[in-house]
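Students often ask what a 'structure token' actually looks like in practice. Rather than answer in the abstract, let us consider Polysaccharide synthesis, a protein of 287 residues. Its sequence is given first.
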Amino acid sequence: MTLLLSLSRCSLRSQLRRLLPLALITFCSVTYALAADTSIISGTATLTSTDAKPFAINVTTSSEHERQLQLSYSAPVRIKQVLSDSLTHLPTFLGNDVKQDPRIYWTGAALFQAFPHPQQQTVVDQINQLATYWHDERQQAVLKLSQQIEQLTTGERIFTSLDYDNVRLNKQANTLITHDLTLILPPRPERILVLGALEKSVWAKWQTRFDAEDYLKQGKPLSNANNSDAWVIQPDGTVEQHPIAYWNRDHHDIAPGAIVYLSFSSLPKGFETLNEDIINLLRNRAL
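Now compare that with the structural description of the same chain:
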């Protein structure tokens, strides 16, 4: 198996707009390349395939970060090897980037097949259509929700464990990688996104021992907001239902970088699955 390394500058958002070739300068079996702008061309990633075609893993520390480390493989490789190669080369790659925290927040680490998520625009369109049904304060609130979701970076996420210790010790977690993917190894976020049936979305500072109700106090619920439970999408994509009413409130921890979604308790005909569609999309957000 041959491992090729390259350095590139691009954001995931820029990848959605243009595709430019990356020129590689070969030095034996290890290659470093520098490009002004590069794109990821993601194939249909099948984690159990034995296809031996060469492929690349683009590694970044943020979906908004302009710099990416590219690991190229000539044969299928286990995720343990990809993580090991990433940990080996990321410190050198980051160099003197003083703004970048070198510590990886494994809870938020994620693999993606492609950007954006294929359902993102569909969900945004659904929310915009919902706004036409209401002619009170809910209309503007729903339009703001649509704008917030449209601004999020979402992708086709592969829900597999990326905790390095777990991957090393658990053979079932050591997934086989065979196609082009993007690996995000972020530092720990300091904020929580609170959105849904609220007058506007809120980026709240993460607080130890804060629960869903604490974060929802920083926003103003709409008249048709669910007043019993909130949905929490943890950074690893796990979806949890947290009670928030005075009669059922029970503390549940929320990890840094999570999303608190307050669902709509009643929706017009034709929008019955909107809450579920939004939650499923938010599971695929990239940090």
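One point worth highlighting: The domain at 137-152+189-282 is CATH 3.10.560.10 (Outer membrane lipoprotein wza fold like). Ask yourself how you might have guessed this from the sequence alone, and why that guess would often be unreliable.
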